[in-house]
Design brief:
The protein is an alpha/beta fold. It has nine helices and 24 strands.
Length: 378
């Protein structure tokens, strides 16, 4: 019997495997991964410094243990090189594997930072546990960190680094952090709160060059300003891994395109997690991934089930000033109504009739999120 093959051992791949096993203990499942297959939670990487957790402390079960616990085959250090959808087979650098159904849980790659200079190769990005180990090692005995990007991950790392005692500069092209998710008042309150923690913001700027200096690096911005740094971290965003699918003739857009049942344009090939574009939406967050895993596990075990998302606020891990945001749907007509207090911002996105379409809450106002979720659901 040909197995279900899952490609990827991130939170998406392993969560799907666990959900399949809750429903079906016997169908063969093979999980193929290019790394060592250690189970861990990627969202914990951006707030581990404050918690004093090393890469080893973040690591959960080994691939061998996951294989035993989930009654599955886990092939580590195995890179998939091609998909033959006609033959229902994947090619890897360790041979060929036939599948009954194929799930692509490939994740996403950091967007290249694009900086010139003789230290361009020294700019770090943290996209997995191995990256985090390198980052932690680079921080040893250092003090000054420049973060490129003030989006969700950049803001979380800035909070974590500053709280852990590092001097942090953030270079961000937007005029406030998380400008794609937050209205100006909420973004500026977050910036101010992180500023009070010691984060130095460079808004409306981008990095151009990074060069080695006697005591670290010098980052040159687009306006000629320079920043001295011991470590440079790029957090300018992620790009879904679509190359493997595209080469196999599987339709891709921003991500690997799927329907609500997470099936791609090719029968019995599915995609989920950060690499997937589900009916036009790429949602690289934990809650959508969990919804997808439960729905797809049901589908793969004989009960076709669409992924239906509840209201899913994004929680930004910035303890200096917490943020909960549920953006309005793309193209929603309406605007933000913003109320400010000394301890937080409440921004409600409403249509012309006053109907709630989304919200952005910061500080003490994040306590209102469950009430607002109910209002949205109604």
């Amino acid at each position: 019997m040909k197995p279900i093959i899952i490609v990827g051992s991130g939170l998406a791949g392993y969560t799907l495997l666990k959900e399949i096993r809750k429903r079906d203990s016997a169908t063969p499942v093979t999980l193929v991964t290019a790394d060592d297959g250690t189970f861990y939670s990627k969202p914990n990487l951006s707030n581990a410094l404050t918690a004093g957790r090393t890469a080893a402390a973040l690591a959960g079960a080994s691939a061998e243990r996951m294989a035993v616990e989930q009654n599955a085959t886990v092939m580590t250090q195995t890179r998939v090189t091609a998909i033959d959808t006609a033959a229902r087979r994947i090619h890897t650098d360790r041979g060929e594997l036939d599948y009954s159904r194929l799930v692509l849980a490939l994740g996403a790659d950091p967007i290249p930072h694009g900086l010139d200079g003789d230290a361009a190769d020294a700019v770090l990005a943290v996209n997995d546990l191995a990256d985090y180990a390198v980052f932690r090692n680079a921080l040893e005995g250092r003090r000054r960190v420049t973060v490129l990007g003030g989006g969700l991950i950049g803001s979380e790392f800035a909070n974590d680094l500053a709280h852990a005692g590092f001097a942090v500069d953030v270079v961000h092209l937007g005029e406030w952090p998380l400008e794609r998710l937050l209205p100006p008042e909420a973004g500026k309150r977050l910036a101010d709160s992180l500023g009070a923690l010691g984060v130095n913001w460079h808004f409306g700027r981008s990095g151009k060059r990074v060069e080695r200096a006697q005591d670290g690096y010098v980052v040159t911005l687009d306006n000629g300003e320079t920043i001295a740094a011991d470590v440079v971290l790029s957090a300018i965003g992620l790009r879904p891994r679509t190359q493997l699918a595209q080469a196999a003739g599987i339709p891709v857009g921003r991500g690997i395109q799927t329907d609500r049942q997470l099936e791609t344009g090719v029968t019995d090939v599915y995609a989920m997690g950060d690499c997937a574009e589900v009916e036009g939406l790429n949602l690289p967050y934990v809650q959508p991934l969990m919804v997808q895993a439960r729905a797809l596990a049901a589908t793969l075990t004989g009960t076709p089930t669409p992924a239906i998302y509840p209201a899913m606020p994004v929680m930004v891990k910035t303890p200096a000033h917490p943020v909960a945001v549920l953006p309005p749907k793309i193209g929603a007509a309406g605007g933000w109504k913003v109320e400010c207090s000394d301890t937080g911002i409440c921004a409600l996105h409403t249509d012309a009739t006053g109907r709630l379409q989304g919200f952005a809450l910061t500080g003490s106002e994040t306590a209102r999120r469950n009430t607002l979720i109910k209002e949205l659901a109604a």
